[in-house]
Amino acid sequence: MTGLQFCDAKDDVPSEELPHLLLIHPPSSFTRFPPELCAKFPVLKAWESPLPLDQFLSTHAGSIQALLVRGYLMVNADILEQLPALKLVLTISVGVNHIDMAECRRRGISVANVGNAYSEDVADIAVGLYIDVLRKLSAADRIAQPANSALYAMFILGNMIEFISKGTEFVSEGDCHEFVLGEIKMLGGKRVGIIGLGSIGSEVAKRLEAFGCIISYNSRREKPSLSYPFYPNVSELAANSDALIICCALTDQTHHMINKEVLALLGREGVIVNVGRGAIIDEKELVKCLVSGEIRGAGFDVFENEPQVPEELFALDNVVLSPHKAVSTLESSQSMNEMMTANLEAFFSNKPLVSPVMGE
After folding, report:
1. Which helix (H) or strand (E) is 342 found in, with range?
2. Which of 277, 285, 296, 304 is the catalytic position?
3. pTM value?
4. Which residue out of 120, 222, 306, 345 is catalytically annotated?
């Protein structure tokens, strides 16, 4: 992957004569823009200016027509107020919970994301987390380390009287495995409820169907073309599932959608995997359920207060943690760059955006 090589705005051209693309913070994983695009939208890098941000924005307010952001920058009314010429907010995320969509609509500002660029990689992580939780792969990896050689011996030898004899009878090899890792479950035949059957959720369903799982879903609306059972609310879905995989967007309606009631309906044998946004789950309630054994396990790629992760989770073998890395592949980075470039080229050519975000 090439380094950060954005085209700077030309100092010899008055700023009001060129439409500018604004980056407030340095990007982390962009590749080079095609050279022919540089003439169309020179880039303003706010972080390189010695000016305070407010002053920098006021200096260039008349020329900034597009804003490129990452998921952690809140695009709110305060920012938009300072950019009167802005016509496009382009985010390199799928979710837009960091963008005030209502304010953008009010101001006539278009919003675009990266569309389906990340869908397959996020689906892979979702399935990987689910398999890991069921089969205890991460926990087993820890047992195989040299520091845990005694546990490893218990696992492979089965009858270890000095650890787990039951009176005068030795326990079975299966009992020994359960003692070390807890009960392990197979994947095939599990009833998996997918919350959010959009691009990512559909890819998750396709993968899990191939493993023999039984798919059902909850989404903003039913999809009549699909054969999967549809549940209009997550409580019904939870009551009829062995696992919930969260793939939906974070909105006012989905905030803490997975609450104490839903977790209780999923039950002690249930598993939760979250590749959506952390705040879709009431994280404190889920942690309580995991610690007390009211939920079988969970796989997290996102957390409610990133980068903070609840400390209680670190000691649990029924939990698998991933630091919001589902899209961190070379292929996703390339797809993101292609989608980003296509949207910018379309916008500055007065053509329809490639992946516009439609307001509800």
Report:
1. helix 330-348
2. 277
3. 0.83
4. 306
Catalytic: which of 98, 173, 324, 345?
Answer: 324
Query: pLDDT tens digits for 77-136?
Result: 999 999 999 999 999 999 899 999 999 999 999 999 999 999 999 999 999 999 999 999
Q: CA 358, CA 218: separation in Å to the nearest integer? A: 20
Separation CA 273–CA 276 (nearest Å): 9
Please say if 32 is a catalytic residue: no
Task: Respond yes or no: is residue 277 known to be catalytic.
Answer: yes
Cβ of 141: how many Cβ atoms within 10 Å?
10
At a CB cut-off of 8 Å and minimum separation 6, what does 237 contact?
A: 193, 195, 216, 217, 218, 231, 244
C-alpha span between 93 and 219 (Å, rounded) = 20
Q: Which of 95, 49, 58 is nearest to 75 (CA)?
A: 95
The residues near 47 (Cβ < 8 Å, ≥ 6 apart) are 23, 24, 25, 26
Q: Is residue 294 classed exposed, middle or buried when 0-12, 13-18 and 19+ CB atoms within 10 A define those classes?
A: middle
Please, are residues 336 and 343 in contact by the beta-carbon 8 Å criterion? no
Active site residue 142: no
**What H or E segment, with its residue span, contains residue 152?**
helix 149-157
